[in-house]
Amino acid sequence: MLDLGFVRANLELVEEKLRARGADPAALLGDFRALDRSRREAITQSEQLKARRNELSQQVGALKKSGQHDQAAAVMDETRALKDKLDELDKAAAILDEQLRLALARVPNLTRDEVPTGASEADNKIVKTWGEPKKFDFEPKPHWEIGEALGILDLERAAKLSGARFAVYMGAGARLERALIGFMLDMHTGKHGYKEVLPPFMVNSKSLFGTGQLPKFADDLFRCSDADAEGVARGNFLDNDHWLIPTAEVPVTNLYRDEILDEARLPISLTAYTPCFRAEAGAAGKDTRGIIRQHQFQKVELVKFTRPEESDAEHEKLTRDAEEILEALNLPYRRVLLCTGDTGFSAAKTYDLEVWLPGQNLYREISSCSNFEAFQARRANIRYRPSGPKAKPEFVHTLNGSGLAVGRTWLAILENYQQADGSVRIPEALRAAMGGLDRIVRES
């Protein structure tokens, strides 16, 4: 969430940044100046009346003490009238304050100046390419054909169990998924210094508000029967309802909601494996083949809490940590700086890592690494206390990225390591976790 004082002082800049995202400032903020002015006027009038009420209360005491009871009664009548006006002003201010809060909750983060202006992924900027796409002496197949032919991926039975956009992994396919999860966690904890977390897979609406999924993206989430989507739309963020997590970013970031961290602890680097659940409400007709876009998938997430002055450097480190997984698996990829129109709601700056998929002859996103600056921290009230005896708490900066999306890494291995005879070689880095297996062949 943006700071109210910042928006008030920089409204033209905020509107310009929103237009660069392709958003309509009026639709998000309404008549912000008029609303803010009415709220401040109500607060000012309330403070003036409270001061007058206190003054009259002192007069009542003095009049009673001097025996002027009739005059004291008249002043008390005026005090009661002021109370009624105060109640009205306080209610009006509360309503206006709520309207401002809900308006700010709808406003996305402001993108950094270095983020390229653009409307869609076509305007993203490629900043790095690693690895050479392999040249095949046969026509490479997409992962769904490879997986089904090897008997390690069953989409038909998954549809019978759960419907479209689900998958069943079998045999070596299931083991490969498990091996990837362990490999990623081991590298991030052992080499990169993250602390592993195993969080709940359901969270309350306050947590989803904190990271920016609610209220705007309620339709993209799976909610449990005790979750009130209509209440969320009205700003009713509860701590005793439940939603399935769309990413480990949500529970891990909210670990420190409403807390003040010691500066000496920063930066805090956490990694977590979780399943992820997404309704994909706007994905009708997109990626219907294979496992690119699923309602349930596994992911290893990276989350950081930093001082504001260190978040840029930590963003680069986090992105590099995700890249090293791809390099260890020898999967060609590129790093892309997202443009304003393609940057997520809560992010100020995002790098996407896109892995090469020879069976589809294209690069596809496998990790999204973002710096949210203080946007999530302000929504979730996550602060730190700078050193110094009189230092006031400040909001941390939060960052997160996929390290990596496990299912997409799985399919990238199938497509990049496929052989002419239909088998798939196992990357050397995973063979120990696969029990020494160096190749996946057709299973009965």
Low-confidence stretches: none
Sheet having the most strands: 8 strands, mixed
Q: CATH first level of the largest domain: which class? A: Alpha Beta
Any idea what the CATH architecture of the largest domain is?
2-Layer Sandwich
**Distance separating the two termini:** 53 Å
Report the C-alpha radius of gyration, rounded.
28 Å
- Tell me the structural class: alpha+beta
CATH topology of the largest domain: BirA Bifunctional Protein, domain 2
The dominant shape is: elongated
Percent of residues in helices: 40-55%
* Residues in β-strands, percent: 15-25%
Please identify which CATH superfamily of the largest domain we are dealing with: Bira Bifunctional Protein, Domain 2
Q: What's the total count of β strands?
A: 17
Oligomer category: single chain
What's the pLDDT, averaged over the residues? 93
Number of domains: 2
Protein described:
This protein has two domains: 4-106, Helix Hairpins; 121-201 and 245-440, 2-Layer Sandwich (BirA Bifunctional Protein, domain 2). With 444 residues, the chain is α+β, with helices and mostly antiparallel strands. The strands form five sheets. The protein has an eight-stranded mixed sheet. A three-stranded mixed sheet has the order 7-13-14. Strands 2-3 form a two-stranded antiparallel ribbon. Helix content is 41%, strand content 20%.
